[in-house]
Amino acid sequence: MKPTKYILQQSVFIAGLLFLLACRHESPATQEKSAHTNATEKAAKAGQFSFYKDIEVKPGMHFEIISWGKGVDSVGGYQILMSDSTKNNFRSLAVEREGVITDVWNMDLDNDGNPELYIELLSKQNVKDLQVYEYQNNSFNKINFPPLSARAKKNYAGGDKFFIKNGDLFRTYPYIADSSDTTAVKGALKTLVYQLRGNSFSVDEIKVD
C-alpha cells in the first residue's frame, strides 16, 4: 500500500474517533477527553502508534500528538488533536512526515499568547529537524523552520541537539573543521539561537566553543 494512501486511511480513522467522542452529549466533556486519551494510549502501547504525547497548555486545553507508520520507520504521518473541554471545542491536523518523531513541546517563542508546537524529527540516523505549528483562531498555521545556511553546512555532519534555555531556542552540533582551519578545537560544538517574530524565524550563530 502506498504511504500516502495509508496515511489518509489512518487520518480518517483518528478523525472519526475524535468526532465520535465529540458527539457523545450524554457524557461530560472531561469524560470524553479521558476516554479519548485512554483509547490513544492503549493503541500506542499495542504498537499501532509509534509516538504519542499529551501536552496540557492550560486547564482543559490539550494537544495530543500521534505518529504512525509501517515498514520504513522514517516514512509515515502524524496527527495533532486539540481538545478544549471548557469550550467543547475539538480540532485536528494530519501531516505527512519523513523522519521519526523523537519529541514534541509547546512554546510561545514570539510571546503573542498563541501555543506553538515544535515537532522534533530524526532522519538519516543523526540529523534532526523541526516542524512548527502555531494554533490560532481554531486553526493550525505552519511556521517554516529555517534550514542550515550553506556556510553552516560546510562544517555539519549531524548530531544535533535542540534545547530551551531562558525561554530561547538553541541548537548545537559538533563542529567539523575542514583541513584549512588550523584554529578549530577538537570536539568543539557549534551553537545556533533562534528567534521568532511575525511567524518568521531568524537565526544567529554563536561562536564555536
TrEMBL record:
The protein, known as: VCBS repeat-containing protein
